[in-house]
Design brief:
The chain is an all-alpha fold and 69 residues long. It is built from three helices and no strands. Helix 2 packs across helix 3 (53-65). The longest helix has 26 residues, at 22-47.
Length: 69
């Protein structure tokens, strides 16, 4: 797991991740991604209050699709 925040993981966190099943880890990543989408939607809503929710969500997902590249 890559820690892009450059903060060392606490040993308790490391042990917790080791005990998680692959499915639990995948669920955690999916939940974090969805939280990122919702934060992006909120930011876009401030800039574009006239956009419908569907467009906000589409643009949020599109903007995050290649965010790490």
């Amino acid at each position: 797991m890559v820690n892009t925040m450059h903060e060392p993981l606490h040993p308790v966190q490391i042990e917790g991740f080791k005990r998680m099943t692959p499915a639990q880890k995948l669920r955690m990543v999916a939940d974090l991604y969805e939280a990122g989408i919702q934060l992006r939607v909120a930011g876009l809503r401030l800039k574009h209050p006239d956009w419908p929710t569907e467009r906000l969500e589409l643009e949020a997902r599109r903007s995050l699709l290649y965010a790490g590249t």
